[in-house]
Amino acid sequence: MFLGLRSSERKRKRERKPRAPKETLRHVKSREQRKRGVDVHGPATVYAQVVGAGSRDNGASLYVFSEFNRYLFNCGEGTQRLMQEHKLKAARLDNIFLTRMSWENVGGLSGMILTLKDTGVPEVVLSGPPQLEKYVNAIRVFSGPLEEIKLAVRPYTEKQYTDDTMTVSQIPIFGEEDGPKCSPNSGRSSPSSSPQRRELWRPEDSEDTTTRDPSLVVAFICKLHPKKGNFLVAQAKNLGLPVGTAAIGPLIAALKDGKSVTYEGREIHPEEVCTPTDPGPAFIVVECPSEEFVQPICIDQQLSRYQRGGTEDPAALVVHMSPESVLKTDEYKQWMERFPSTTEHLILNEQVCTVHNVRSHKIQTQLNLIHPEIFPELQHYTTKAALHVPNVRAECLLKFQLRPKIEWQSATQSVLLDCGEGTFGQLCRHYGDSVDETLAKISTVFISHMHADHHTGLLSLLFQRERALATLGKAFSPIYLIAPVQMMTWLNQYHDHCEEILSHVNIVPSKVMCEGAEVSKFKTKAFIQALLKKSDLAKFQTCPVRHCKNAFACSITHQSGWQLVFSGDTMPCDALAHMGKNATLLIHEATLEDGLEDEAVEKRHSTTSQAIGIGMKMNAEFIMLNHFSQRYAKIPLFSEDFNDRVGISFDHMRVSEWCTLVHLLIPPLKALFAEEIGEMEERRGRRELKQMKEAIAESNEEQRTPNEGETGKGAKREPEEPTQDVGSKRLKTN
């Protein structure tokens, strides 16, 4: 019976229908349509993004995006997993460029090819050293025939490759024969510099077919295609062109091609109705694995064409996949300096400080809260280095925009909410040696109001940020300062009489960020758009709150959807509840404990329950209380309104996606600070007893006071005021 089952199973397998071919991917269809089209021009958006920053655990790899194509430069171990975790889609990846045949560069290639095959990518072209063809054949030993995907190798001898996005030139770099040939990461001598060894499994009489060539590195020069200027509809209408009709099509095509047209007897020039053509920037990817390659790179004529005084426009970006030992050589530094100051240098090597596998760290951190010994915290290898040539150290997902505007787009820009006295000192204590990197990432500062404990740390922060940028070799840029307009009065006076400071800030008045506010100044509009883009924000909104004059709260909405609301100092405020409707996180001041409502009104602050009430009213997912009075030295008193959506903040506290776990800390916090809580409750008890006695005394006093007009027995008679003439009154008031 068992054999019969096996036989029938084999029969069913033979009768099974063949798998239907995968549907052609949409981007492949679009590419074919573009080839058939007449008006072919460069893409509107292109950027380069770091996948692996070059650390010991994640080799250097760079992802280049355009709406037409996707590219990958080097594919070390874990690259495919990183792209999947960070949602860098591999489905449109059809070109992989390899700078060198080393495991650091090709270790993840097999997994990437299998992923592309399963995704339905029809063809992938590998460019670089000619040994890539042998490597692909070696992959087939364990991956199978790979019949569903076409793998092609474009060796460096095929100088140029062109597609819809750019032209890529391969530049072979051959290391000098003198000197040790060494792997920069391992320190091991390469086979070419050690005695020839014969592998144990190979027969002695077999033919040696080795094609290893460790002296070869391939650099890549990538030049984006020109992009025609945009047609300006409003200007065209003003000039009388037939916008909105069928006749406008040929006119637009001619004007965007740089040709003048005549319409109804009037000659229209391209510059009148079109933005200038973008000629297309160039970027260079170069690996210099050891010092034997330094001189060949520095004297290469094709690379020098994109330096200062070269025959081409200078490169917008140079990506250096080179160890620190190379970067510190005088010859290599001089080569970097031959590029103009407009060229950005991105360095990918072991001297980086970044976390690649964020998901693993998040999960492990959560598990660590359950049992720190079973689930130990993850570590990451970091080292530091300094280079006097201005440069940017790679971080995972760091993005450099090549079009429409050449600029860095860091995924780690920071917004600072209020900046009281001592803020920089707190940053030093929190971040230690990495405080400069933290300061460099601050792009926006929000000042809620003009009380000293909320803004007098700003100047120190600005000066220290300038120093940090210089230390890191980064270009200086002012921060975006969202603050009451009175802030400019203070800054202007300090600037005029003390030190230069105004160049450090781009001011955006808080009132123009309110809902429905009109922004009349073009510069302010530009600042708002820039600060949103720089921090990946979809919205930044403010609203007036009930504290002092010109006090504001703010709401920050990220492009990914989360919303953070910051109250600043305020009494309970309906406008704040409205602005923060359904917020992800509300950070609300809770200066005073319950029972001190009168004092809260007098000082225009909130009590604990009032702050929680605002959070419930806006339906915030989580409420974090802060700004406790200095009378609570270590911990505030908890109210009965605390629930699993409420937490309290501490200095140096770090909260992210798992802020909903914070309420679980309240029982251990109560145990940790039991003595302090006991003392505060005792003081509260004495205060409540005193208030009770005062209330009883006041009630008794009211009962003893006779009604108006009564002169009964025992009633006190009001003393008569002495009569004064008008003259004496005037004398007293003078």
From TrEMBL:
Cell compartment(s), UniProt: Mitochondrion matrix, Mitochondrion nucleoid; Nucleus
Comp. bias regions, Basic and acidic residues: 683-720
GO molecular function, one term: metal ion binding
Gene3D superfamilies recorded: Ribonuclease Z/Hydroxyacylglutathione hydrolase-like (3.60.15.10)
Biased composition (Low complexity): 183-195
The keyword Plastid is annotated on this UniProt entry: no
Keyword Nucleus: yes
EC number: 3.1.26.11
Signal sequence segment: none
Assembly with partners or alone: Homodimer. Interacts with PTCD1.
Protein family membership: Belongs to the RNase Z family.
Task of the protein: Zinc phosphodiesterase, which displays mitochondrial tRNA 3'-processing endonuclease activity. Involved in tRNA maturation, by removing a 3'-trailer from precursor tRNA. Associates with mitochondrial DNA complexes at the nucleoids to initiate RNA processing and ribosome assembly.
Protein name: Zinc phosphodiesterase ELAC protein 2
